[in-house]
Structures are given as structure tokens and as C-alpha cells.
Amino acid sequence: MFACTSKQTSLEVACDQFAGKKHLIWEIKIQRSESFLLTLCSNPTTGFQWVDPAQISNENIITQTSHNIIPSEVNVPGSASKEEWIFKPLNKGKSTLALEYSRPWEGGEKREWSLTVFVDVD
Questions:
Q1: Cis peptide before 77, with omega less than 30 degrees from 0?
Q2: Is 18's pLDDT higher than 80?
């Protein structure tokens, strides 16, 4: 789901979107004056986490400025939370953001979910 304002473009991906397809690909076009907020479903009680920082193919085009974990709004053990990233465009051009949801320890499942975002900065 996309929401655009004059200052920020947002993309939020819920857990049920990954249930149907574990590896998602999105394309977005943003203005150089906009920041980009990416919100992803997460559940740290499972041992899985989104790898930080995001992999950025061209850091001359876009850079990651923050990453925050937003706790679940429900106080129930095991309930899903969210992780938010903010990216800032630096120059016009194209770059790719790649994020992977894995268990980081040796032998842990890798790339259980992934999100690739093709970003076109105008």
C-alpha cells in the first residue's frame, strides 16, 4: 500500500502479504525532495529479524537514515510488531533496496522473507 504526501512516500507490508508470497518485489518513483518510509511486519519472539542496514545498490542515489522497531499495539506475547526504515534520496537516478528476514545465528534460517524495492528518484 502506498501513501504519498509532498514530503514522504510510505510503503507498508503486513505479515499476511508475506504469507502468500515470501519474496516480494515493488517498484516506486519518488521525488528528490521526498523521504521514503518503509514499514515491515516483524515478530522478534520467533527469532527472526530484518537485517539492518538494508542493502542499497547505489548509495549515491539513496541512503538509509533510520531504522526503528515499533512494538505491538496489543500486549499479547508473540504478537507481531513492525520495523520502520527511513530512506533519503540524494540524487536523481535508480537504486535497489534489498531487505531479508532471517534468524541471524549460525544455522538459523536465512531469507525466510525478502523485499526488493526498485527506487527511481526523479
A1: no
A2: yes
Count how many domains the chain has.
Answer: 1
Domain, as residue range, for 39: 2-121
The pLDDT tens digits of the residues spanning 60-89 come to: 999 999 999 988 887 777 778 899 999 999
Which helix (H) or strand (E) segment holds residue 38: the answer is: strand 35-42
In the block, residue with C-alpha cell 526504515: 85
Helix (H, G, I), strand (E, B) or coil at 18: helix
Query: Rounded CA gap, 106 and 91, in Å?
Result: 38
CA pair distance 44, 78, nearest whole angstrom: 8
pTM for the complete prediction?
0.86
Integer Cα distance of 72 and 76 in angstroms: 8
Q: Do strands 62-70 and 23-30 pair parallel, antiparallel, or not at all (unpaired)?
A: unpaired
Phi-psi group of 111: left, alpha or beta (phi > 0 → left; psi -120 to 50 → alpha; rest → beta): left
CATH (domain of 55): 2.60.40.2020
